[in-house]
């Protein structure tokens, strides 16, 4: 049986299906870099900007279209229901991580946009469309109460087209720790900045879920790791492939006929939390041997290895490096290559 999906959110939501191609799952529409605030701003005029106005820019048509969604009132909504609705709507709230700005047009009209790199490039470029010349971009900040008010409007917009049982919320968050397999090291973003950003995003997620308690929520496993060698480059929202595998498996549960979907989703999240704990240990050992690092690099974290099952270990195989293995009986993780190899006992 085939299922169709529309997506409003960051690239993570779309990459789930890029990395896990499946004949049964079809992505109809994808809206990115347009925050809920910009999408429901009531001051926007329609048809301020058209893709044809951006012909001198080398951005992809997908980027240009999303840029127009930021400028034009109701256009994102119209795109969402164009050619019929999908079976499910997938979304996250990560576009609220961007700052926002007020566009001030020469005719004194104003509208709110998601302040992305493309908008700044557009307004600072010599090839700016004539209709936008003289437009100013003024930074604007919102209190939680103001964001919640916009989220109310966003929820009402979504519910015009989708029932709660058709809505899937991926609780994506930026992470500060990323694997760098070329440099054999962990690349880290500022822990404090990521912590404060995620604390804010979590407040928005909690508000959204409290307003829509009957939607499907896919939690982020503890210890999820980013990946510097991601196809789209280094970013705090670019993860190891296993995270997209997790979201894909969660989506399979949601569209299934199972009666205990919430229980299965929680068990899956718990499983992948162990996944990422094991993956970090394996990578620490791998980097340790490849770079002759001091023993302090091997953190003394504990894995609940007594709870492992054959099925779990089998699932873990695809996240281990080619020359790595995990022995369930001895709890030994082995990694390295023919020249260098090492073992690490996971319950110590």
Describe this entry's structure for a reader.
This protein is α/β, with parallel strands linked by helices. Helices cover 37% and strands 18% of the residues. It is built from ten helices and 14 strands. Strands 2-1-3-7-10 form a five-stranded parallel beta sheet, with helices on both faces. Helix 6 crosses helix 7 (191-211) and helix 8 runs antiparallel to helix 9. The longest helix is centred in the last third of the chain and has 31 residues, at 261-291.
Work out the helicity level.
25-40%
Summing up helix and strand content along with how strands pair, one would put the structural category as alpha/beta
Report the major sheet. 5 strands, parallel
- Gap between N and C termini, in Å? 46 Å
Report the total helices: 10
How many strand elements?
14
Query: Which stretches are low in confidence, meaning pLDDT under 50 for 5 or more residues running?
Result: 301-319
> What percent strand?
15-25%
The H-and-E topology, N to C, reads as EHEHHHEEEHEHEEEHEEHHHEEE
Approximate shape: globular
Keywords:
alpha/beta; 14 strands; 10 helices; 348 residues; globular; 5-stranded parallel beta sheet; 37% helix; 3-stranded antiparallel beta sheet
């Amino acid at each position: 049986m085939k299922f169709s999906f529309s997506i409003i959110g960051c690239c993570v939501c779309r990459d789930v299906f890029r990395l896990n191609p499946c004949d049964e799952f079809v992505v109809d529409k994808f809206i990115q870099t347009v925050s809920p605030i910009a999408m429901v701003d009531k001051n926007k005029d329609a048809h301020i900007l058209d893709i044809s106005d951006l012909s001198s820019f080398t951005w992809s048509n997908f980027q240009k279209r999303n840029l127009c969604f930021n400028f034009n009132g109701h256009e994102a909504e119209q795109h969402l229901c164009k050619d019929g609705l999908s079976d499910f709507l997938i979304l996250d709230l990560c576009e609220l991580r961007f700052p926002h700005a007020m566009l001030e047009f020469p005719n004194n009209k104003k509208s709110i946009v998601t302040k992305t790199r493309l908008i700044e490039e557009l307004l600072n470029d010599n090839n700016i469309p004539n209709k936008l010349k003289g437009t100013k971009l003024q930074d604007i900040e919102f209190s939680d109460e103001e964001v919640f008010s916009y989220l109310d409007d966003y929820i009402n917009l979504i519910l015009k087209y989708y029932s709660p049982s058709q809505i899937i919320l991926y609780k994506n968050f930026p992470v500060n720790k990323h694997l760098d397999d070329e440099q054999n090291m962990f690349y880290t973003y500022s822990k404090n900045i990521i912590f404060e950003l995620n604390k804010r995003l979590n407040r928005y997620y909690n508000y959204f879920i409290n307003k829509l308690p009957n939607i499907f929520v896919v939690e982020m496993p503890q210890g999820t790791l980013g990946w510097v060698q991601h196809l789209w480059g280094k970013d705090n929202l670019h993860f190891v492939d296993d995270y997209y595998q997790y979201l894909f498996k969660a989506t399979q549960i949601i569209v299934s006929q199972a009666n205990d979907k919430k229980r299965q989703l929680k068990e899956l999240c718990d499983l992948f939390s162990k996944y990422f704990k094991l993956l970090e240990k394996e990578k620490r050992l791998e980097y340790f041997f490849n770079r002759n690092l001091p023993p302090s690099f091997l953190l003394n974290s504990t894995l609940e290895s007594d709870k492992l099952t054959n099925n779990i270990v089998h699932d873990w195989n695809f996240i281990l490096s080619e020359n790595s293995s995990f022995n369930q009986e001895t709890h030994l993780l082995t990694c390295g290559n023919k020249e260098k190899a090492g073992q690490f006992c996971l319950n110590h």
